[in-house]
Amino acid sequence: MIVQACLNGARPDGFHPRLPLTPEAMAGDGASCVAAGAAELHIHPRGTDGCESLAAVDATVHAVRRACPGTLIGVSTGAWIENSAARTRAAIADWQALPDHASVNLSEPDAPAVMDLLRRRGIGIEAGLASVADAERFVNLAGHGQVFRILIEIGEQEPDAAWEVTDGIARVLGRAEASRPVLLHGFDAMVWPFVALARQRRWSTRVGLEDGQHLPDGTTAAGNAALVAAAVAIFRAEPAG
């Protein structure tokens, strides 16, 4: 069970005063999150124009590694970043500063090819499952048991719907005896309910400005490190009763 810090995601400039968008900002923010208890970092590198870019992975990973030696670093391969399967694959093939792992959304058509490329490059795979259909697709892929981790990442904002999708994904994984480590997380209104559920099920979780900017009491966090500290406190709390 770990807490991963997701520093920025696709959030736009202005989402939060301390949203890190440059390699230097991500490096400094990542170090603060590690100091607050984060075991890993998940980042979305940005180009000089501030937009997400797979071509910016080298410079960003270099900067974050210098600031956070020994910390596992993951990046996104989301199809929207390059808006082209060919450009996505070409960018990954050109990486020189390799991240430790990369997330792949099973809802995306080119996911199997991206996963194969990551394996050939020696990069771990976080298999992102946002629906029961994603889970079914995942367990039917050859080599699904060799991914680094399974991400159950729930976009639903109503609790009953969110629990239903989560339980449905878990049932599919259970039937397939998919025994890889699981990281569960939600977005915005569901960030903290899923941190609590992850602790209950002894899964890992993640928090950060990619997923939401509010603390458990509803106030706006000072930044990523405050969000990490709150999640770590939940994970370390003594069980009730």
UniProtKB/TrEMBL annotation:
It holds the Pfam family BKACE. It comes from the Bacteria. InterPro entries: Aldolase_TIM, BKACE. PANTHER family: 3-KETO-5-AMINOHEXANOATE CLEAVAGE ENZYME-RELATED (PTHR37418), 3-KETO-5-AMINOHEXANOATE CLEAVAGE PROTEIN (PTHR37418:SF1). This is Uncharacterized protein (DUF849 family).
